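ARCHIVE CARD
Drawer: 12
Card no.: 0347
Subject: one protein chain, sequence and derived structure
Cross-reference: see card 0346
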Amino acid sequence: MIFRFLALFCAISCAFAEEAPQAEEKEKGLIQKRIEEELKAYDNTFALIPHKINYILPLTYQSDPNQSLYEDSNTLLMHTEVKFQVSFKVPVTRQTLFEDNGYLHFGYTSTSVWQAFNTDESSPFRDTNHEPEVMLSFTTDAEWLGATVPLITFGLSHQSNGRDGEFSRSWNRLYMSAILEYEDIYIHFKPWWRLPERAKENPQDVTGDDNPDIDDFYGYFELGVFRRISNNELSLLLRNNLRSDNKGAIELNYSYPFSSKVRGYVQLFHGYGETLLDYNHKNTRLGIGFMLNNWL
């Protein structure tokens, strides 16, 4: 399945490349330009910088809503939902930590799925995931297999949906993130290690591990591929548990110019863990909407 999506990504990107005029060679890559823009924020300690993508998908359709969580109630989920994400980071200090390198940031990302059209159930927010994190980033001149490695980041992340009882989900991770740049293709590799938690004595405990098997479905890494072709942007995100049962997720994204302020955005997700509440539930979702900042 993963190789099929990789082949699809390559085919789509090549199709855009054939139609798009050849761009003039740039001295600096997109990663270097973004780093330079972000460093300007160090003149203002309270400046907010886009972290992950900020977007809203006013209309999404999911193939299999996670109805199993509501078997004890009369709640009926709709296939259509609104999905949106808000993500930013801010410099923690105005100085680098190691001579002229080592940039410390605090980041926050919130991702929500909202049953906005489900008026019979009072249009509830089905799940909201909060992810604060602390990141230490280093710029480099390293090269590997013909690609440059302009940025390496080490981070600590907490992710939770802020709920209790059987709906509570959370985990903590240490991660390393590296971005590779090869011509006009950008690769993002992010492995992580989950910080262990004690087992719960009973399911109603407010402390203890809410989801001890989350690694079985989320896996142990993310692999992203990004390509900009003219004004079109394509990205592919993969997660996998590297086991024989082959669980994980695939997300294919496409954005295009819509106006001077926003971009049109199409997102296709398939697999496990689109939200923490659905970490062990397999689903496919197609959404269309708007992106408020570029990937790079």
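Annotation on reverse: The chain is about 10% helix and 45% strand. Residues 16-26 have pLDDT under 50 and may be disordered.
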